[in-house]
Structures are given as structure tokens and as C-alpha cells.
Amino acid sequence: MTALKRTASVSIAALLSTTMVFTATGVSYGQSVDLSQWSPEYVKSIAGTATYDTAKDCGAVVPNDYTGKVSYWYTGPFEADPQIAHDQDKAFWEAFKVAYPNITADVQSIPYNDLLDKFRTSLLGNAAPMVVRLQILGGVEFAAKGYLEPLKPEDVGYSSADFWPGALKSVTWEGTGYGIPTNNETMGFIWNAKIFADAGLDPEKPPATWDDVVAYSKQIHDKLGIAGYGLVAKQNAGNTPFRFMPTIWAYGGGAFDEAGENPTYGASELNSEGTKKALQAAYDMYVRDKSVPTSALTNTQGENQAPFIAGQLAMMIAHPAEYARMTDLASKATGADKATADAVVENMRYGLIPAGPARRAVVFGGSNIHVIKSDYVEGGMDEQAVKALICMWTSPEWSTKLSWVGSNPGHLGGFKTQWMKERLDTIKFLDVTTSMLPSGIPFPVLPYAPEIMNIIVPDMMQNALTGAMTVEEAANDAAAKVEELKASQ
Amino acid sequence: MSTMTAGDRPVARRKFDGWRWSGRVFLAFMLFFTVMPMAWMLITSLKTGFAAMQYPPQWWPAEPTLDNYTRLVDPRSKVGQDFLRYFWNSMFVSTVSTVLAVVVAVPAAYAFSRFRFPGRNFLFFAVLMRNMFPAVIFLVPLFILMRLLGLANTHGSLVITYLTFGLPLAIWLLKGFYDNIPIQLEQAARIDGATRFQAFFFIVMPLSTPGIIATAIYSFIGAWNEYIYAYTFLTKHEQLTLPVGIQRFFSENATDWPGLMAATFMMSVPVVVLFLVLQKYFVRALTEGAVKH
Amino acid sequence: MGTVPGQAIFTDVPVVPPKRVGLMRKVYRSRADYLYVLPAIVVMLIVIAYPVYYTIELSFFKTPASLQLKDKVFIGLDNYAYLLQLPAFWKVTVQTLIWTVSSTLFAFVLGLGCALALHREFVGRGILRALLLIPWVVSAVAASYVWKWLYHSDFGAIGALAVQLGLTSEPINFVDNVQTALPSLIVVNIWKEFSFAMIMLMAGLQTVPDQLLRAAQVDGANAWQRFWHVTFPHLSGVSMVTVLLLTVQNFNSFIIPFIMTGGGPVGSTHIWITHIYEFAFQRQQWGRGSAYAVLLFLIMVLLGYFYVRALTRGDSSRAGS
User: Fold this and answer.
1) In angstroms, rounded to a whole number, what is the distance separating the alpha carbons of residues B211 and B174?
2) B259–chain A Cβ distance below 8 A for any pair
């Protein structure tokens, strides 16, 4: 594991000196945290250097004795999530009750894959909540359709400099901000060192490029008969694009030019050479080498854990929460299970997502909090109560605690809190995902991006992987669909 | 395929009966086909989350555990509270819709059987056509309508909708019953001074008890298992019914198969038990009310 | 109301033919009758009339991406024209037919087999019957999850069993394969539905008169002949109803494909209803989704005509008897 950390930090340093993706956005001045110095060491050095009194800070925005009500929808922790996520969620609502004893909160936690459908239906029936937290892909869709109130950090007492520039960009539509980032996440790469060793690979070294992933995957499958890389290609499960777009970007492709410095979202690049190479890599693994799980076409990422933990899958792009989930499972295992579980956890390694000829890339993910226009809200709006909730939720303290296992605080001040320090001390590999943040590329900031990411891109993969089309045809078909979609707006 | 029909019964058979044996083989196959998925559901539910993720699977859990069940019914844990709440919601919605379905279906079926009012045939057909309409398309208009009626996000929206699922079969079944009950019974009651409604309520209705029970079972099962309307109409977590509630065993990055299987099993228990206890009425009602001409 | 008690029950029975009575008067005279059916009609109207109207209306409009339906634009039959020229529509139509016909056929045949095999008394018959009925009672949501877990291409019990028994070298690919995904889902649907056919036909079998079968046996008819000439004709009415109910149900079934595959891979398990859902909810093209739905209605109305005819067969002969 120390070997990993060394590898990771070396790669990070190399990365920072070459690409500097985040500074390219140009807004790194005046941040409360110095983004130009971003590295695992820097993240560690600032953790625990600041303290905040959240109730008091928010009290300056909305008085603590304010009486009112607020309704809120978000994706909270569910049954399969680790215990700590449940505990932090509960702690937040208790803290909110203490800070604002006279605000009644009507809170609904809605599963990840249902939230968009339910939110759309509620808007049709004017039954929406006052506040909603959507994953990064959702906000602009609703802003463009006129459902959201403008909302920027200054409205709840923070400064725009307290948030990642890329994250703020993802909630900006035609120059106006429509939300505040609550948490930012990037994924990392997870592999099973024992399988690597058994297959004759260096157990402590992740594949450096996506070409390596294809080769490793084949070697693992050929030697051991198990799946190498955990590909996912299910349609309409939000997590497919999170796993495949990084490959596309790494090879130099994209849905549009979103990977570039100043995206214009002109012509679709799904038919570019880069996209085709990425698709070819997936094809090679799935069809030619059969080195990835067969269930990729109907699987969501959640189902990849099963083979991974059973030692039947060697590597995958993983969300930090998955690591937490697996250690949580292992800690609850008993008897014979315990030994197996511990062995898998022991062999788990976490590193950077592989690079490609064009760049190293990961989806700049996360969630944003939004306010709905009062016309669509069930029972009208209570602006002060809304602000109180948003101030608490996006505070350094709670944006850290509420993203405990899964991601990083939306408010950069969160990195300076003692809780960040605690997380760094207790969650192994957390620095790998924080290190990936600078390689983060946001999805296209377009209202129809969800359809591209959740339907067109997975369709493209399925077309190529099932042999319904050639790689070439599938990519061209997808680009044509994007153009058609764009024209119909 | 077997054709061992009732006619064979009284005739003693000594020689090898091919039909009977093929019937047995067929039944054995069907039994395996029916039971295998349920058995696997039960076995998986007895595993720890970790053991379920083994390949090849443990055909019998190395360390069977009831944790997944105790967690679901433990009112102190959050999972338990949620599950019990969904369970209670399902019970409430299904019971109310069932009672209302019977209350609505019985007089309607009686009227269709006995009275000859204008538009009778049209209305009868209209009722029977209800199940022709696919639920999915109606989701949004119905949601908007429920909003207008002030029922969105209440169990009332589900009750009204579920009520109509069972009605076509219920009315048809009960009408068959009433058609077979001789009117002389009511005539006699009327001579004794009963009103038309009294004759119906005290004389005819009790005779159709098997039909009413069958109607009730059918409505209850339909309401208990319904997914898509509950998924759309309800948002408030404390109002969810079981089929929608158990989706919470999936999250973005994790799937708790044993927990899901345990919840699925628990969800199936009430309807299966209810049905097994009352199934003989169901068959009888179908025989007497619907099939017999 | 009538004066003679016996006749009063039939306000409108042609014992005294009500010649040329105006419709309104007839309606007025039967006003008490309507009270009995009123609740049923009212709920039906709520749940059906408005949605049908809404769907038909929307099918003639282009709905804006904003979902703000007040901005919709009238485009006549364009949505229908679009669908009818869409290759995916025809592909899904073929899949819908395969899904409906094979699910109905197999569920009926297996149900009939079980009903016949269970008709004779034997030890354990009650338990066997009860077990075979369970799939119908279990929710489609539960069934979908259980089968999804059983079929899992890398991890499913069926695949693992096949490997352990040496039938295949690697787990069978059921649902991640364009060729086998739809048949695999049909198996689940049959599992769910055959019990319904079984219980209907069991009821039907009870109406077959024993004497007829015995007479046929005395006349030297073998088992097949007895089934074909005596039993089956008695089952024709209930068979018709069962087949129609199953057909309608299969056209409308949503949960199994939605939960198990979401229509994939490459749309190979889409049937009309899941395709409509994709248009309306996932791609938010409500106009096209509605037009699609209206096409489905038309088929349903046609089926409904036969269904009602089958249900009301013999109704006229019974009425007033």
C-alpha cells in the first residue's frame, strides 16, 4: 500500500507538471484554497487548519430563530450504503434542527436512478419541492427549461471563490448560476493485487494507459479464466457514462469538445477517431478477448462489486464509496466469510485512472443543490427557510461530512476542516480520488446532456459490443443521433 | 402432456399407464420450474452480503444467518422502521382498495345481472374494457388529475386506481353468480314485504359469498403487488408501498442482494398465505360464477 | 316501480313490452337501477376518461423539450407518420408479437397441462397445487429481481449450475445477448402467468360432466380421444377467456422487461409498452409517446371486442331466465 501511495503521488506530480487541466479554466485566483498547489501532500497539509461554527455562520444569513418550512429532495443513503453515511445524514438533520429549531423540514430521500424521473413528473404536476439536489448532469437541463431560480454561493453567504470553478460552470446556463455544488467527486481505479500477481503482472502497479488495460485484461483472462476489466454498458443507468467517458476523453474523443479548454459544443465528436479508438478498446475486451464480464450490457456498476469481491474481476473504475462498501461488508462478515473478505480487502489497491494518448481524464462529478421556481412548488416558497437549509448543507462542515465516504466537499473550505483530516486518516486511498480532481472533465453543460450520456452513449456501446453495428457504424450512428437531438431542441 | 381426466378415476388400472406417468413427469418438471427461483431467493436471503458475492455460489450458505430478516423487522434500526412502515402502507392501501372494490362491484354486478336499464350493455362492456388500457401511458395524466383532486402524494390516489383493477373481473364473476341464483328467492322475499334492496342485501348477497371472497382476493393481490402507479404517485418516503420501497436496496454503487431477497420474501408472504388459505374459494367462485354456463 | 312484486324486480323485462317509450322516460324510470352501477362508473371515468382524452389530444402535438405543455404545437398526424417510418418501431412491433404470442401460448399450454394432471385425486395434490399457484401471487417486481439474480451472466445460479454439471464451459449468457434476451424474459413471464391459466382451467374442468367421460370410455375412446372430444369442448369458453386475458396482460406487461433489462441490450427486449415509456419519460417526447400509446389503444380495443364477446357469451341466454 505504501508502494501505491508512492506511485500515485509520483504520477500526480507528473500530471500536474504536464496538463494542469484545472488551472486552464483560469479562475484559480482568490480561492480560499490554493488550487494551483493541488497534490496529495498539499491536501494533507491544509486539513485540520481551520474551524467553523456553521450554525453561527448561517445565522448571519438567516436568523437562527426564523420560523418557516422547507421541502427538499435528494439522494440520501440507502440500505446498501455503509453505516457511516447513514450516521452523517442523521447527524445533519439533527444539527439543522438545533440551528433552526423553528424551521420544519419536509425531506424526501429518493433513489439515484429514480430521482430524475420523479422530479420531471412532479414538475409536470406542479408538485415539486422547494429545494432539490441533483447530480451534476441534471441541473442545466432544468435551468434551461425555466424551472430553476438563479442561485449562487453569494446568496447564502459564501463566495464563488469557495468552490471549484469547473463545478460552478456545470450549474451555469447562459451566464447565470442556477445552483451551488454540494460535493465534487472523481473516481479512481481499483484492482486486486493478488490477481495481478497470479497473472504475472506487477501487483502494485496499475495499468498506465487504456491500451495497457486492454492488454492486462486479456492477460488476466487468458491466464486465470476470470474477467479482467469491469466494463459497464447498461442504458439509462447514470453510472455508465461515468465509466466510459474517461476512456473516450483519454483517446482524444468526446461527446463534443467538452474536454478542451473552452468548449463550444459545436459538432458532435462521437464520430471522431478518439471516440472510435475508445470504442474499439471496449470492443476488443468484450468481443475479441472476452476478457470483461459478460453481464456488462445489463449491469450497473453496483453489480460489479460481486465479481470483484469474489475474486472474479481484477480491476475497474471505482467510486470511493465502493471501497467503503466493501470494507463495510468485510467488517460485518463472520467465520469463514471473514477470512475471504479480509483477503480481498487486503489485496485491494487504489490508483489513478489510466491515461490515453490525449490525456488522463475522469468525469468531474458530484451534485448541486437547486431552488425551484415557486410556480412549480407544492404549497409555495419560503425563501428564508430555503436559504437556511442551503447554507447549512453547502457549509465547509456539512459538505465534508455529508460526502464522507463518497466524494469531496463542494465547499473548498471543507478541505481545511478537522473532518477532512479525519477522513484522510481513516479512509485509505482518499488521496487518490482527491488527486484525480484536476483531471476532472465536466459533462457538456447542455440541457439535453442527460439523453446523450444516459441513452446515446450506452446505445453506441451496446451497438458495437453486440455486433449489431461495427465500431465505425456505431460511432457514426451515435454522432448522427446527437446532431438530430440538437436540431430538435 | 397428460390427459388423466376425471373419467379415469373409477376404473381400476393395472397395466402401465403412459398418460399417468407422463403427467407425473410433467408435474415434477413444473414443480422444479416453479420452486427453483423461490428456493434460490430463500437461500440467498440466508447469506451474508459477502457470501452472496462468491463465485461459484455457495449452494447452501456456509454460515446461514437470519440477520437479513431480523434487520427488516427490527423496529429499532432504520431499515426495520422503513420496512415495517412500507409493509403497513401496503397493508392499508390493499385493504382499503379491496373493501371498496367489493362495495362497488357487488351492487354493480347485481344490477347488470337483474336490471334492464338503458345503456346496460354499453356500461357493462365499458367496465370490462378497463384492463385494456396500459398503465404506463396514464401515469402523467392521472398524476395531474390526482393533483387536481388533491390526492397526489396520498394513499387515496392509489386506492382509487387500484379499486378499478379488480372491478372488471369482479363484476363479471359476481354477475355470473347472480345469473345462477333463481329470482324466485327474491320474489318470495318481496312478497314477504322486503324492498328490492333488502331482497338483494339479505337474500342474494349471502349466496354469493364465494364470489365475494374471490373478488376480494383478486383485488388484494393486485393492490399489494402494484408497482408503477405507486412509483409515480408517491414521493414521500413515509408513504411508499413495499414494491417501490424495496428498490431502496439498490444504491448507486452497491447492491445488497441478500437484503433484497429477504425483503422480497417477506413481501410475498402475506399474499401467498392469504391466497393459499382462501384458494379453494377462488376456484369455486371461478367454477360457479364464471365458467359454468 | 311495478305493482306486482315478482315483476318489480325487472323494471324493464319484456313481460309487458314497453312499446315506443321515449329513451329519456326509460332512463328516468330506471333511475334507481343506475344507483347500483354509479360508483363503478364514476371511478372508471376518473381513472380512464381523462387520461384517454389527454393522451389522444397530445398525440397530435409536438411537445416542447421544456415539458411546459402549454407551449405545445399542433402538428396533425406527424407523430404517427414519424413512428410508422421508424425502423425501431417495426422491430419493437415484431418483438411485441413474439413476446405476447409465445408468453400466452406457453402459459396456456403449461397451465392446461397442470390443470389436467392435477384433476385426479392423489396424495399431496393439495400441496402441489398450492405450490404451483405461488408464482401468480408473487409480485412481478419480486419475480423480476429473483430471475435477474438467477440469470446473471457471470454470477447467476443457473449459469454456475450449468458449469458445475459440465454442461457448458462458461456461464450461459442469457440476458446480455441480443438473441437470447427476449426468450429469457419470456420464460420469466411464463413462470409468472401459467398458474393463472391453471387455476382458470381447473375451474373449467370441474364443469366437465363425469358421465360423459365415462360413457366415452365405455364406447372405447382412448385418453386422447376423451380429452379431445369431451373435455376440451367443455373448456372452450373458459379457454377463450383465459387466452384473451393473458394476451391483454402480455401486451401491457411492463415490469419484467423494465426491471430486468430496461429494454436492452440494443433494444432487443423492448416491447411497445417499454418503448412508449422510453419515448415519454426518458426522452421526454410526450407527443410521440402519446401517438404510440394511441396505436396501442387501437389494438387493445380490437382485442377488447373479442374479450367482451367471449365474456358475455351465453349472457343473453341466461338473462332473465
Assistant:
1) 6
2) yes
